[in-house]
Design goal:
Initiation_fac_2B_a/b/d, Rossmann fold, Four Helix Bundle (Hemerythrin (Met), subunit A), about 350 residues, binds 5-S-methyl-1-O-phosphono-5-thio-D-ribulose, alpha/beta, Methylthioribose-1-phosphate isomerase
């Protein structure tokens, strides 16, 4: 069975409902933006690249089905702008959806200036743009996997390496190969992975439910640990590198990622273990000077107090449940792995500008 988070063909989109994994594999139809917003918000689909893909493809499906003003091109442009604003608001920390919304708006603005452009032309532009994203994400992930594996193997003189990863950054979070998990996949494909340690990733358990599922599915040697075992694993189990994903990388390299990433970076620094962030340039936000400006989503307290609908925390306790934290750039000692190469945080701004052709 091949694992896919997103199934798309023109006019039809469905997502693997990740709330039901690993117990049940169920694809759900997403007939438009409203359903996508709910699925993203409820974390039926999650992970920065997958959020943007499902958001944009849901708009494509809706427009293919005839939503929006039929003939009036400026009205259709305004309609698309409004739908994009709605999608961006679903989860604020991951920047991919916001960046794609910006690119789509700019593309439509340019297209709308061509003489005689029709509402249908604009619809087609959105659909083509969204479809191109799927392919681009797949290619970016493959490049990230290759660059990351090469960098780690050059830096570490071992025949095979042990990597610790956090949250889920694999097939379920992207169009297919994954970012940090793509690096793990690439090492494994080259016969150079000794073992992957995946953290449970409390409170939502993306590691235990999703990453473990992917690793077992692919036959990759892997061990699940509680989040609180990570420092001990670095000291006692021969972890050679930590590789995590990103929801947003600021211009100076500060990185927002799943809660718990920051403490992994602190522990990695203490143990002299190189710490890598693997993310496509679509997850970088060069307009934000530092991580202090990244909005951090706070999730319902029930994710902490309850387990599968059963209350486990003492009644009456106050809860703080940030979904992400920011790792300062100075702790990203291995580098930031993007589709164009691996950069020290201080080199990122220039590398992104060069990749854009500025
Ligand atoms: O809350 P989630 O599950 O959407 O958080 C996911 C992460 O933090 C991932 O590391 C990040 O989005 C990168 S996924 C390739």
């Amino acid at each position: 069975m091949s694992l896919e988070a997103i199934r798309y063909r023109r006019g039809s989109l469905s997502i693997l409902n990740q709330l039901l994994l690993p117990g049940q594999i169920r694809y759900e139809a997403v007939d438009g933006v409203e359903r996508a917003w709910e699925a993203i918000r409820a974390m039926e689909v999650r992970g920065a690249p997958a959020i943007a893909l499902v958001g944009c493809l849901s708009l494509a499906v809706e427009l293919h089905g005839g939503a929006g003003p039929e003939r009036d091109a400026p009205a259709l442009e305004a309609f698309v702008g409004e739908r994009l604003r709605h999608l961006v608001a679903a989860r604020p920390t991951a920047v991919n959806m916001a960046r794609e919304a910006e690119r789509l708006r700019a593309a439509l603005r340019r297209r709308a200036q061509s003489p005689g452009v029709t509402a249908q032309d604009l619809r087609d532009s959105v659909i083509e743009h969204a479809e191109a994203l799927l392919q681009k994400d797949l290619e970016d992930n493959r490049s990230i996997g290759a660059h990351g594996a090469r960098h780690i193997l050059q830096r570490l003189p071992h025949a095979s390496v042990t990597v610790l990863t956090h949250c889920n950054t694999g097939t379920l979070a992207t169009a297919g190969y994954g970012t940090a998990l793509g690096v793990v996949r690439s090492l494994h494909a080259q016969g150079r992975l000794a073992r992957a340690y995946c953290t449970e990733t409390r409170p939502y358990n993306q590691g235990a439910r999703l990453t473990a599922f992917e690793l077992v599915h692919d036959g990759i040697p892997a061990t699940l640990i509680a989040d609180s075992a990570a420092a001990a694993a670095m000291r006692d189990r021969g972890v050679h590198a930590v590789v995590v994903g990103a929801d947003r990388v600021a211009a100076n390299g500060d990185t927002a990622n799943k809660i718990g990433t920051y403490q992994l970076a602190v522990a990695a620094r203490h143990h002299g273990v190189p710490f890598y962030v693997a993310a496509p340039s679509a997850s970088c936000d060069p307009a934000l000077p530092t991580g202090a400006h990244i909005p951090i989503e706070e999730r319902p307290g029930g994710e902490l107090t309850d387990f599968q609908g059963v209350r486990v925390a003492a009644p009456g306790i106050d809860v703080w449940n940030p979904a992400f934290d920011v790792t300062p750039h100075e702790l990203i000692t291995g580098g930031i792995i993007t589709e164009t190469g691996v950069y020290a945080p201080g080199e990122l701004r220039q590398a992104l500008a060069a990749a854009r052709g500025d």
